[in-house]
Design brief:
- The protein is mainly alpha-helical and about 150 residues long.
- The protein has one domain (about 30-145).
- The chain is built from five helices and no strands.
- The protein has helices at about 10-15, 35-55, 65-85, 95-120, 120-145.
- Helix 2 (about 35-55) runs antiparallel to helix 3 (about 65-85) and helix 3 (about 65-85) runs antiparallel to helix 4.
- The longest helix has 26 residues, at about 95-120.
- The protein is elongated and about 50 Å long.
- The N and C termini lie far apart (about 40 Å).
Amino acid sequence: MRRPALPLTCLAAIIVLFVVACGGDDSSEGGEQLPTGEYVAAADAICAEAQGEIDALESTAEDEFRVVLEAGVAIQEDQLERLRALGVPEELEEQTTQAYELLEQLNAIARDVAETFSRGDIERTQELVDEGEVLNSQLEALADEIGLTTCGA
């Protein structure tokens, strides 16, 4: 039996999971603290590069869906590593730590989406997408607080 096709709105929402707000971890794991403007510019540059890679992955082919999601998660994990290497300004540590935690949750949801979709569990896939959209909204708000323009756009 053929699994039901993933509705286009669901697919679009999942791709939106990868258009997330950027955030680094606290400065203890990054380099020397950067001035806020330099941090924002560097973070936005990292996000723009990651988003370009993710945009290149987009596919609506059902057979490629899991591969696309897994590749997107790998890109996001690399993005997080690069963001963590930035020296987060002290005044942004709380927001970037929150964003980092939310990004980790989004990556976990994306992995779960790939798994549930592969099993043909469209209802659970949609529930996970909805959870991801809530997290993504929170990340967008954090990006605005931090002053990011590319991240979270």
